Amino acid sequence: MPTQLKFRERPTHEASGAGDGVRLSAVSRAYRDRRGAQVKALAGVSLRAARGSVLAVVGPSGCGKTTLLELICGLQQPDAGAIKCEPAVLMPQRDLLLPWLSALDNAALALRIAGRSRKDARAGAAALFDELGLGGFERARPHELSGGMRQRVAFLRTLLSGKPVLCLDEPFGALDAITRQEMQEWLTGALVREPRTVVLVTHDVEEAIVLADRVAILSPRPGRVLAELTVDLPRPRTRTDTVVVALRERALEILTRSRVA
Predict the structure, then answer these.
(1) Rounded to whole angstroms, how far apart are CA atoms 28 and 79?
(2) Among the residues of 42-200, which ranges form H helices?
(3) Which among 171, 155, 168, 31 is positioned nearest to 94, based on CA atoms?
(4) Of 100, 115, 149, 210, which sees the most CB atoms within 10 A?
């Protein structure tokens, strides 16, 4: 059983630039569906992502994974428990690139929103295009980019927000298997070059183990932490590594058992 942090009676969300990543303490959240019925999304979730680490969250559909990211980013507030984290930004599953803007201007949007001039924002984004494998695509419109390239632009826009915590919601879920694997390898390298604390939501257990330092497994709704697996392996990781295979099988066993229970 995961270690439970001390429950705080008054729900809070505290953002601090002097924090140490992300910490959730006995967080619960419910909402009303379209018929007005109460739906419990999360129940007593306690998790921690140390500064500079990657925490992956896996679980069945509807178990509150996206709600968890929105809570971390301050887009929702917990009904109970506490969240302490450094400033965080959400990258949703869809890239949400603006079709009338170039790849460079889409990436620079985060800097424009922060008040930078168009010229300065473009310069700030252009400085990372080559580093993140986007060189030569600055003037391309979204429809001229592959799915993987669109996700790179969206990721760069997220990076340029300057937030130390990145919440990635199924960032590669819409990609084909080959592109998805390429993007997993690319993300590993990108985080070496541009370190951040990352909370990654994914349905792909193998992806979680390949990318993360720790993997949290959530139960069916309401989401509870069933287990946390430590991935003590150097990067880059191969899917055929015996430890990766063993952890994948362990995670799948836990998920399967939770659905039967």
Answers:
(1) 6
(2) 65-72, 103-113, 118-129, 147-159, 177-193
(3) 171
(4) 210
In the three-class reduction of DSSP (H, G, I as helix; E, B as strand; rest coil), residue 215 is classed as strand
**138 pLDDT tier (thresholds 50, 70, 90):** very high
pLDDT score recorded for residue 191: 86
Task: Find the Cα–Cα–Cα–Cα dihedral 9, 13, 17, 22, rounded to 10°.
Answer: 80
DSSP 175: S
Contact 11, 78 (CB under 8 A): yes
Please report the DSSP string for 78-121 in residue order: -SEEEEEES-EEEE-SS----TTS-HHHHHHHHHHHTT--HHHH
Instruction: Find all residues with CB under 8 Å of 163, minimum gap 6, and list them.
Output: 86, 87, 88, 89, 196
CB 103, CB 34: distance < 8 Å: no
Rounded Cα distance, 160 and 148, in Å? 18
17 falls in which pLDDT band (50, 70, 90)? very low
Report the candidate in 57, 19, 14 with the shortest Cα–Cα distance to residue 223: 57
Helix (H, G, I), strand (E, B) or coil at 169: strand
DSSP, collapsed to helix, strand or coil, labels residue 193 as helix
Question: Each residue of 19-54: pLDDT tens digit?
Answer: 579 999 999 999 887 888 888 999 999 999 999 999
Q: Using alpha carbons, list the distances in angstroms from residue 115 to 10, 102, 107.
A: 35, 19, 14
pLDDT tens-digit map of 161-210? 989 999 999 888 877 888 888 888 888 888 888 889 999 999 899 999 99
